[in-house]
Amino acid sequence: MDNFGQFVSTTRNFVKRDLKVRYSQSILGPIWVVLHPLLLSIVTAIIFSLAFKTKVSDVPYYIFVLIGYLNWGFFNQSVRESTGVLIANRNLVVNANFPLESLVVSKQLSRLVDWFMGLGIVILWLSLSGFKLHWFLFAYLFVVFFQLLFQLGLSLVSAALNVYYRDTFYAIEVALNLWFYLTPIIYPLTIVPEKFRWLIALNPIARVIILSRQIILEKYIDVGSLVNLTITAMICLLIGIFTFRKLKLKFADVI
After folding, report:
1. How far apart are CA 158 and CA 165, in angstroms?
2. 106-134 residue pLDDT tens
3. 188 dihedral zone (left: phi>0; alpha: psi -120 to 50; beta)
4. CB under 8 Å to 70, separation ≥6 — which residues?
């Protein structure tokens, strides 16, 4: 119980540190959390609506994209930052007297704070666009919870491997760039040829974004897809915990 209390306390302190460092030298501070996905959505909407004639039936395209960017930004930034967090805090790792997992978890939670702020602008934008808010939106929180578990498991593995193999960080960068295009963020699933949709089906983040749009825009959820996401997230988390705990025994020797 003492170890758990230390884990919670340490994680909370790291989250506070991350948020303070991230916004203390910024004029707009956390407003950037809102502006970033919003501006990306507007630019993407202009390009794809006008240049490529991309359309999404019954839904303003910028809202369709905004929901995708909100989930993707949470995943992308969390995994990138978590992968390098042990190397960035090597002095703490060498002299660790706290659970090292808290460094990775804190990155996830600090970005979760950003996600909540981004969710606020999505809800506001939906209201201004004429969408009626509904209680089913609470189901969205469950989807994001399992997204958090999935990316935490992935981040525990990548952070641990990065201590031993520094190329891991660059490999993750490349993988995330490719992952973006394999995820229906700026395009609807309907434009993907049937023979390639199996790639989307294997992509947990694609499942997260599709489920999120179903809940927010259609007041509907594919239960089978949610169960699949839940199982995938739990398996990934268990693999991440096992891998991290096994590899961290020699962190101080190799970092």
Report:
1. 10
2. 999 999 998 998 888 888 878 887 777 77
3. beta
4. 37, 115, 118, 119, 122, 212
Residue 196, classified by CB atoms within 10 Å of its CB into exposed (0-12), middle (13-18) or buried (19+), is: exposed
Handedness of CA 205, 34, 80, 141 (dihedral sign): negative
pLDDT tens, residue by residue, 150-177:
999 999 999 999 999 999 999 999 999 9
Dihedral of alpha carbons 158, 159, 165, 169, sign:
positive
Q: What is the rounded CA–CA span in Å between residue 133 and residue 162?
A: 43
- CB of 225 closer than 8 Å to CB of 231: no
Q: Locate the domains of the chain by residue range.
A: 2-254
Angle of the 138-164 helix axis to the 204-213 helix axis, nearest 10: 160
List the Cα angle 201/203/209 in 5-degree steps. Answer: 95
Residue 1: the pLDDT is 47
Question: What sign has the CA pseudo-torsion 134, 231, 117, 70?
Answer: negative
**Sign of the dihedral defined by the CA atoms of residues 137, 141, 142, 146, in that order:** positive
21-34 b/e (C-beta count within 10 Å ≥ 16 → b): ebbeeeeeeeeebb
Distance CA 16, CA 139 (A): 28
Asked whether 78 and 151 are in contact (CB, 8 A), the reply is: yes
**Cα distance between residue 45 and residue 63, in whole Å:** 9
What does the alpha-carbon distance between residue 118 and residue 15 come to, in Å, rounded to a whole number? 18
- What whole-number distance in Å separates Cα of residue 235 and Cα of residue 156? 13
The residue with tokens 């949610």 is 226
The radius of gyration computed from the CA coordinates of the chain, to the nearest angstrom, equals 19
